[in-house]
Amino acid sequence: MFANLEALPADPILGITKIFAEDPRQNKIDLGVGVYKTIDGVTPVMKAVAEAQNTIISKEATKSYTPPQGAPGFGEAMLKLLFGDSDVLGRGRCTAVQTPGGCGALRLAGELLNHTGAASITIGTPTWPNHKPLLSAAGLTINMVPYYEAENSAIAFDSFVSAVKKLGPKDALLLHGPCHNPTGADLTPEQIDIIIDVAQERGFLPLIDTAYHGFAHDLETDAYIIRAMSERLPEVLITYSCSKNFGLYKERTGGIIYVGENAERASAVKTHIMNIARSNYSMPPAHGGAIVSEILHSPELTKLWRDELAEMTATVRSNRKLLVETAAKAGHGNYFAHIGQQNGMFSLLPMSDAQVAALREDHGVYAVGGGRINMCGVNEHNVQHLVDAVNSVVNG
Ligand code: LMR
Q: How close is the Cα of 8 to the center of ligand 1, in Å?
């Protein structure tokens, strides 16, 4: 059956972790996969998560199935976190189903769109390398349009809006929540409002993929795109990952959120989402969802979690500053300046794939193809080596 299958190339992001681990060089720098790291290169278990986990384990009396919508209380807590006091929640227009990570949510969203006859999904380029495979595996036709110009390190907003104006009621538009991956270049609230006006006019459905909620500014500011779109549009889909903001990477915890015209629509669509999940993996793993639910139902743990998240966000911002300042001192300020204005874990260094390879092979600096660097891998011990290596590769 499988005799003719050839081995596939390594995943463009996950493959980096393996080759980095095999590199014997002492001064190597891992700027690959999007995980938070302390200055010592550790991705810690958050204290709020450890406490919630201890409570759950001490209380656990059964390993029987969780309901198809996920751990008890997960969906309700997620909706409260996303919508706060918004009328979207008050009117019961939204519903949430727990999924195996943000990837599981994207797969369900893709299948839901496909089942209901969506013509295509439009995605701004560049985007997270897994968007296209995930959504095309769900049966959608992918339409790539310009989002960001690497030469100017800026959003190509006019080109993006022109492309979006061509969409119609059978189309979906993928938008990134806070902390665009891979560019770190987020739409401003004014730009989001323009996209909402176009969506009202053209009738397409926004799918907001949110994997870094809280990592740009704070949980409330970062929710603008979700709240504004949900308040002003009749339908919105949101895919959500708890990997980064709860540090639950390997627990595969996320959710799909649907906002509809009214509560009746929301409950009907929820049954379709659960039906698609049943034919994929039946129900999500329980542990991560239970942790999120435990944290968000406890005022003390919620405070601890919010404080820890704010600290991670501040660290990533100060890593950005460190890189920009070190580069400026070394006379390469212009090349790195955009990094100081962008959000979240990632930014793009304007470089070719050959230069990314040279950075890795000649200097032990591991970036993702296209020049994406994870700012969590930058620290005061390695920043000079990073600046020198990039300078040597880019300027010869
Ligand atoms: C990343 O972009 O590095 C992360 O979201 C991890 C992944 O699954 O690609």
A: 19
pLDDT at 41 over 90: no
Distances (CA, A) of 208 to 123, 211, 231: 11, 10, 14
Q: Is the CB of 128 under 6 A from ligand 1?
A: yes
Confidence of residue 11 (pLDDT cuts 50, 70, 90): very high
On the question of pLDDT at 365 being above 80, the answer is yes
pLDDT digits 0-9 by tens, 129-167: 999 999 999 999 999 999 999 989 999 999 999 999 999
Distance between Cα 87 and ligand 1 center (Å): 33
CATH superfamily of 14-44+311-395: Aspartate Aminotransferase, domain 1 (3.90.1150.10)
Where in the chain are the domains? 14-44+311-395, 65-297
Which residue has 């538009």 as its token pair?
Answer: 173
For the ranges 115-119, 301-305, 350-354, the lowest mean pLDDT is seen at: 115-119
Q: Would the CB of 157 count as within 6 Å of ligand 1?
A: no
- Per the prediction, the chain carries an average pLDDT of 97
Is 382's C-beta closer than 6 angstroms to any atom of ligand 1? Answer: no
CA distance 309 to 108: 28
Report the nearest atom of ligand 1 relative to the CA of 33: 3
128 CA: nearest ligand 1 atom: 2
Question: What is the CATH architecture assignment of 65-297?
Answer: 3-Layer(aba) Sandwich (3.40)
pLDDT above 90 (res 103): yes
45 Cα–ligand 1 center, Å: 18
Percent of the chain with pLDDT over 90: 97
The catalytic residues are 128, 209, 244
